[in-house]
Structure formats: C-alpha cells, structure tokens
Amino acid sequence: MAFTPRIGVYICHCGINIAATVDVAQVTEFAARLPEVTVARDYTYMCSEPGQALIKNDIAELSLNRIVVASCSPLMHEPTFRATVAEAGLNPYCFEMANIREQCSWVHPGGTSTTRKAMQLVASAVAKARRLQPLEVRQVPVTPAALVIGAGVAGMQAALDIAEAGFQVVLVEQAPHLGGHASKLYRTFPTLESAVDLVNHLVDRVLSHPGITVKTDSEVKEVGGYVGNFRVRVLTGSQEIEVQVGAVVVATGFEIFDAHRKPEFGYGVYPQVITTLDFERLVGNQIQIDGREPEKVVFIQCVGSRDQSLGNPYCSRVCCMVTAKQAQLVRERLPNAQIQIFYMDVRAYGKGFESFYDRTREQGVIYRRGNPSEIIRRGNRVVVRAEDTLLGELIEVVADLVVLAVGMVPRADSETTAALLKLARSSDGFFLEAHPKLRPVDTAMAGVFLAGCCQGPKDIAESIAQARAAATAAMIPLMQGQVQVEAATSFIDEDLCAGCGQCAQVCPFSALSMHPVRAVMSVNPVLCQGCGACAVTCPSGAINVHHFTFDQFILQIEALSNMSTHPLPVSEVETMTVMEHP
Amino acid sequence: MLQIESRQFVQEHGLFACIQCGKCTGGCPMAVKTKLNPRDLIYRLLVAGNGYDIEGREELWDCTTCATCYSRCPKLVNPMEAVIALRSAFVEKGRVHPNVKTALESTFRYGNPLSMPREDRGAWVGDLQLKSFGEGTEYLYFVGCTPSYDPQAQKVARALVRLLDSAGVEFGILGDRESCCGSETRRLGELGLFEMMVEENQDLFSSMGISKIFTTSPHCFNAFKNDYPKNGRQVQHYTQLLADLVETGALHFMGEYNKVVTYHDPCYLGKHNGIFDEPRSVLKSIPGLELIEMDRSREKSLCCEGGGGRMWLEGTNPGTRLAQSRVKEALDTGAEILATACPFCLLTLEEAVKYLNVEDRLNVMDIAEIAVQAL
Fold it and tell me: Which value does ipTM take for this structure?
C-alpha cells in the first residue's frame, strides 16, 4: 500500500507576538484546505504543555504521520517539537517548522499581506512535510579522554579535574614548561600569596597525576572528527603524534599588551619606564633602576586597555588590583618612597578587592584621577605629564620609576587556533562563548570548551573557576559514553557520481572520500554535519542532504511562488514594508 | 551671549563617548599656558543641558589644531574638531579678531590669506625654468600661499624645484591660477568659505586633468588628503615624494652636508598623518649629515604654535611661545641645524631663534633647503 501523508498543522499565536499582526484563524482555515492536511488548529502557545498535548492527542486519534508547527524560529523550538512528536511515536524528522514570527509577524506591519505571507510560509512547510522521510537517529560511542590545549593555571586546573574524574587527559603546552603567565608573577592579589607557590602546587599535581599525559614544546596541528570522537594531530618536538579524545578544552591564554604601541610613554626609550610584568621580575630581586632605589614611583593604569584607538576597547580587569598590589610591595620595600597612581576609574569589583584598595590608600599611596598624556625626559628622571582631572589642572609629576599597567590582548596566533577548532572570535579578538550568560564555557562547536583568558581577560581565581566549569562541561559527553550524531547527513546517488572529488575538497569535516572499489564518492555519516556544501558543489547533482533534499526544496519554492493559489495583489506587495524590530 | 545648542552639538561631535580621563588636556601644548582645557570644555558642554554660552571664551582661539588631543584619545573623541566647530559659531556672528577677518577676506578676494596680489603668486619662480601644469607633466606641484609669497619660504620652493629637476620628475605649477587650499580657513571656523574654495579647487583640478599632487606644506597636503571629498587623486607631501625618489635612486646626492641636524616633526605631517619616517629617510640619505633626535620627537613632537590659524593670532598668552621651547629643546641636543618640513614651522622656529638670540648656534632650515646643498 502506498504511503499517504496525514498532516497535522498547528498555528501558534505566541501570545500576541504572532496573533497581533497575523490573522491566525484565517491561516488555520487556509492550512486545513491544503492537500493531505488532515487537521489544522491554532493555539495560544503551541510550545506549552497543553499545546504539545494537542499535537500528541491528534497523532494518536487522527493517525497523523507528519506534523507542521507554524510558530517561531526552529532555533528556538525545533528541539521541543521534535521531542513532542517522538513521544507520540513518530520519527522526530517527520516534523517541519514554519517560522511565522521572526520571519513574518515581527517584521511586518500586519494586515492582509502579512497574513498572506504567513499562509505562504505554512504552505511551503506543508509541501515539504508531504515528502519528509523518517531518519535514523544514531548513537556512537565516545572516546573517554580529553585534550586540554594550554598549561597555564586554567589549562592545568581543567586537566586535573577531568583526570580526577577518571578520564585520560592529554595536556598540550607550546612552552617548554608548565605554568603560563602566572608563573612569571611574584605575589598575587588580594592576599599577597606567592604566585610561584600557587603555580608550583598545580604543576606538581599535574605532573604526578597518572591520568594526565603532559606534552610540552608541543602544538596542536590538526583537529578532525566531532564531539565524542576527535582525532587530533600534535607536533611534539619534531615528532607528530595522533591522539583520540572525546572533548577539547581550549585554554590557550593571552598575551601582554605591547607597551611600545603607546609611543607617548617612551617604553623601551627611558629605562625608568617599565611594565607591570617587568615590575614582577624586578620586585623578585630589588626595586632598582640603574642601580638606584627610586624615590618617586608613578603607576599608570589602563595602558592598552579601554583604548579604542588601539582596537582594545575592553577593560583588562586585573590591572587595577595588580597596580594596587605592586604599590603595596613598593611601600613594603621602600617605606619612604612617594607613590602615585594615575587612574581613570578604579574597578575593585571582586571579593576582597575593595578592602585591598582601601589598604593601599591607607599605606599612603596617592590616587590621582587622570589618564597621563605623555612621559618626557628631565635630567636622569622622567616627567609624567597629565591633567589631574579632579583639580582641573595640568600637572607634571617627576618620577624615578614609572610602571605601566599593561592589559591583556588576544594571542597573536588566535586566528590559527580559531581556524583549527572552528572557533568564532568576538570583536575584541578573544574566543567567543556560545552564549554570554547561559553558555559561558561552550563554543559553537559541540565538544569544544573554553577556559581562562583565551575567552577574555580574567584573574587567577576567575580562570580557575572557568576552568572547572569547562572541565565539568567537557565531562558530560565523556560520562554519557555515547553521543547522538546528526541524521540529516548527505548521501550520494552512485549512478550519477563521476568520482571527481570536488565535494571532498569543500567538505569542512573531511567526511567525503573515494570509495576504494566502486570509484565513486562515499560519505562517512559519522563525520558529516549536514552543512550541504558538497550538495551544491557536485557538478552532477549526485549529492543530496537528508531532510534537505533538492526535491523537498523545489516543492517548497513552488508552494511559495504559486501565485494562482495564493495571489498577492501588486498594490499589497508594494506596501509590504519591513519594519524595524521593536 | 553666544549660545550653542549643546545637546545637538555633543551628539554631532560624539562627545557622549568622553570618559573625562583628561588625556587630551594632559598633552595639550596650549593647556600648559592658557585657559584652554579640552576635557573641561567637553564636560561643560555635556552638563549644559540645551544651551551653552561661549561668550568670552577667548581660549578657543588658542588651539593650534596640533592633533595631540584626538590622536591619543582612548575613546576616539576629537576635541580639536569640537573647538573648530565652536569657532565657527563666532565666525557666523562675525565676531572674530580683526586679523582673522583680514585673513579670511584676503582669502576670499585674492586666493591667499596674506593680502598679497593674486598676479604675484608665481613671482617666486624668478629665473627658474619651470613648466605650467599641462601636457607632459605628471605631477602638479601645489606650492601653497606661504611658499609663494614669503621670502623665507620661497627658498624652500626654489630648492624643491632644483631637487625634482635633478631627479627628472615631470611636474608643473598653476602659477597665478593657484588658490589657497583653505586649510587655515577651515580651522578658523569659516566653513562656508572653505566649502566654496574646495569646490573651486576641485573644479580646476578636474578640468585640468590633475591626478597627482604634491605640496610644500603639510597643511595643504592634509587639506587635500583629509578635508576634501574623496576624488581618487594621489596627494603627497614633498618629503614622501623625495623619499620615494631616494629609494629608487632617481635622486642622489653627489655632495656632502657635514652637519649635525635634528628634525622637528610638523603636526600636520606627523600627528595628523603619521608621516614620521619619510622626512627622516631623506635626511639620512644625505652624505655627511648626522641626524640626532630631540626627546620629544615623532608622536611626542611639540607644536610650533603656527597651525589652526595661529599664524594670524597671538593667542591669549603671547608671553611664552612654544616655538621658543622647541628651539631650546633643539639646542639641548647639540645640533647645529633644526630641520623641518613645513613653511609655518620654518617661520615660527626661525623667529624664536632670533628672539632667543641664538642665530650663531642654531639654524632653522627646511629639508629641501638642506638636501639641495648636497646635490
């Protein structure tokens, strides 16, 4: 017996989001008359419990086998409704969505033409639904191991947590030793603990952990595969090795802002002008410039941060407290030194930070509000020229030592790393999280997570916190043991395929290869992510993507452009203006 | 009362972006010696509500438009342009210093702010063999007002002609058809007149098929490059052209110039346009010349106080002059020659040398004048 689609169409009001501009009753009436539609209904919120129950009920009672919901973007609720139909016993791919909110009700003024557009979108979705095929949802086993890239505090902490949970970890570090930037610090804020002790504690634990394989002097060269099964090529020394992991934590860190880019401060010209990082080295021994202890010390905040002229518009978050810490260290070593800090705003936002700032001032450190404009030479001292904005006066402060509080910038190799892992970057150049609030350690790539300053400036405590979050997130697929793979993959009509291999060249996931015997291309459905690049590239039209076949598309387009069934009067086409989003 | 619609003004000039950090004022060479305080000015405009009185704010005329403020602003605010816009409010009411009035009227009538007759504009050529722009001339040499009329600056133009001839550059001038570029007109706030001059110059350049221009003055160069509407014309300052010619070997020096030279970066070449290296590379290519740097060089160069219309205005504190400070800085280096590449800098620095009575120790010269001695 031939298969007959029995389609249920559900039009959502989305409260008034859709119903205010689209005549949902009319759309429902229209949908009910479309071919092979068994039932059409409208409801206030299709995504609500009763809305979903409506669909499940109809599937059972009316023997529906294809479902169309006309509501919001599939990004919002496709997973919801796929689950709904699956609960009612249908294959989740027997579901299609028409976006009549973002693509219709929100962007048009309402009236007949808006309702007509909603009808066309519904007709198009129904046309596709008539040809929908059930697809097999497959699970593949996960490699119970993780790769952590970068062995600063964030990378080391993430590696430790994952290894503690019982999974193997490969920790790859470009430098010859572990520890990252934190190992170059002398003390940490706001507790004045030794940074070396803190870092060494982590290093020791990492090195002695049986679950962690440390690869220093190493670089990740290639990342293939997908969540659950990544194949990673690592260049370690002169040798290239391959590791298989289920998840990846990116903890590649940052670079220090190059103070030479602020020529007005004369870094590299005047020996008296150093950076906060230089100061950490200096304070480990003796605070001296040209063999002399400075009597007058000036700190300048926000060097290279909050500075759009350099393309670094963001606050580097740590510099306020680094400077406060260093001022305290100067006071401790040189009780009689005059210490002044130039600031724009003091951001003492963290736990214990405000009292640390208070203590700094109580020790006789003077905060002067103003962003110094330049440093010039005067004898064997330098002069910081600034406006004290609270006095409203131009001042010249003589100094024996000027410390520039340099901020954090994305690593120079960020672009390469991003390309390697298909990571997005935010406008400031740091790696972009999947959602700023809800998914702060995830990336757009399933199975790849972010920790530490590669995602944006952070202090040690925040880096550790994010590392532990990323480790936890990475452990989810590892602990599940299986991951679901995309069912909407591409497939090849071997009668049409000439084996030219152009598809393999465009495939970003290396999912296509020449069949060794049949001389046609074949798809590895586990690697394929269903992007469709191969289908549009194939000169013979031999490749289709399941759930997005050319047949389905053509029917959808025909439904959209079929003017005889849904004519749009010319006058209304012209008045169908696009409004700005409220 | 001279009310500014401050709400609209701060919007148009992007002043809401200001975070009152004071970087502009901290580096402002005029804030040291006058009431001009760009940060304070912006704050007052921000908090004024809708109406700010600029009556009596004479310090607005102190600004030399040296670009230190905006080139360092972390929020890309441009206090310099705000000052120019406030000046235009005075100009609109006709309430400007008599000198400014004279300069602007002269620009309108004679095509130069110096009250010199238009027909004498080409007189500086003298006995030099020099083409008018036309067939077979690749470049237009836009001489500019000061080098056309001022006897000191004329020497620069004449030196430049000899240098370019020796390098085989095909160029011509406009003679008495050349009119002021309008740079100073704009900076004095006479925006209407400036627009008219832009239109006339653009029409002239287009009708003559001019596609490549070089200028004596960084001010003309900056006006054509940044103030005129984009037109596809290549504009260079002459030091860029010379640097290219030295690089390709078309210009080489047979002679020597055995002197210690320090170079003063003109604001409109350096801070405004980032041209720091080309003038230096020309100087370094001269055999025998030793180039030493002042502490304040390149981005930190101190303004000579000749820009922004200040060639015709004494300012509110004529007692101390930046050019004099600059000459002292040059003396500190031990150099015998203070080189520059701008007619305004040349004149202000030379005057300072005379005032300080150090003519026996320091000579102010344009790069072209130095280079021509080593041909």
Answer: 0.93
